[in-house]
Amino acid sequence: MKRRERTRQLIELGGLIAKAGIIELTDDDRAAIFGLLVEAAAKLRTDDTGTQLTLWQRRGQRAFADTQRLSNRRHRFHHPSPAHCPTSAASP
Q1: pLDDT digits (tens, 9 = 90+) for 18-76
Q2: Tens digit of each residue's pLDDT (9 = 90 or more) over 1-23
Q3: What are the residues whose beta carbons fall under 8 Å from the beta carbon of 22, sequence distance 6 or more?
Q4: Nearest to residue 33, comparing CAs of 44, 22, 42?
Q5: Angle, nearest 10°, between helix axes 51-75 and 30-45?
Q6: Nearest to 37 by CA among 50, 19, 22
Q7: DSSP states of 30-61 as a string?
Q8: Is 58 left (phi over 0), alpha (psi -120 to 50) or beta?
């Protein structure tokens, strides 16, 4: 069970990297992706006040909300009422 949970976590984290556009921005360069993650970890280690983490959390929350709004717009479409639909039985 633990292995399945860990696998799911890793897949979700990979999805976040994809969702952020990192794969395209780095041309799928694994060394560059790893480097930027190492850089982010170093920044968090030296951030005694926790402000960087707070800023990144807020930015992530806004990005999730924006993504959700866009997704909702794409899935919303208009169904005309039956009165507005032409019928095939109508003949002159």
Answers
A1: 999 999 999 999 999 999 999 999 999 999 999 999 999 999 999 999 988 888 888 77
A2: 999 999 999 999 999 999 999 99
A3: 33, 36
A4: 22
A5: 130
A6: 22
A7: HHHHHHHHHHHHHHHHT-TT-HHHHHHHHHHH
A8: alpha
